[in-house]
Amino acid sequence: MSPITVNSAPERVRFAQRSLRSVVEKWLRPTPAAPARVSDFSRMAIGGTRFVRVEVSRQERRVSFLFFRHIDGTWNVFPPATPRPMTKFY
Hints:
Layout: H1 9-17, H2 20-28, E1 37-43, E2 50-58, E3 61-69, E4 75-76
Antiparallel strand pairs: 1-2, 2-3, 3-4
């Protein structure tokens, strides 16, 4: 994967809003009493997409989310779309 270049200020803000840290804070709301921790990370068998499982202990249960890295370098709770075969007509 090639390095990601972020040139303009709006692009930097958008990229920062989709960093792994920012999406973990958005979805799991970790606190000093219940910090977030990475419990698993790997690549998917098809396509090699990276994923990270992050969990937080809340009272008597654990909450975990899978975060997927997209080709633009952002992290989301949904996997990137897989390329599908297409037929082109000329």
